[in-house]
What we know:
Blueprint: E1 2-7, E2 10-19, H1 23-31, E3 45-51, E4 56-63, E5 72-81, E6 90-96, E7 109-110, E8 115-122, E9 128-136, H2 141-149, H3 153-166
Parallel strand pairs: 5-7
Antiparallel strand pairs: 1-2, 2-9, 3-4, 4-5, 5-6, 6-8, 8-9
Amino acid sequence: xxxxxxxxxxxxxxxxxxxxxxxxxxxxxxxxxxxxxxxxxxxxxxxxxxxxxxxxxxxxxxxxxxxxxxxxxxxxxxxxxxxxxxxxxxxxxxxxxxxxxxxxxxxxxxxxxxxxxxxxxxxxxxxxxxxxxxxxxxxxxxxxxxxxxxxxxxxxxxxxxxxxxxx
Length: 167
């Protein structure tokens, strides 16, 4: 299921996926962004720049170029949290950060992830519901333009690849 909400120049996106693996197995796979390019074609590379602590890592991510644009790059903080109670979800939160050791380069267009991530809810011992969230600003819009003008095919394809990767 895919939901969108537009407000000003911000588009909020929610994608809900039913996955046939337990939530405690989906959590480490989704919180380790070095796996992301295996299922998300918007991620060309993803490397850990700094492990802030056990739950927080800073990654450097590159995305392939869109027609007529430079490839994009991102410096992001990925924070993972385990549930405090069984009814609560696992959380993987993502946002862009500035790191002086990774200044913007001329070969990439430095982009920003305002707010994104996953909530992973346990449905049973063998399945879970994964919700992906992203607040997209006008800078990331070219990646979603096709989805907004016609179909949600690319978002749907990425979600199906995510499910296939997890299962």
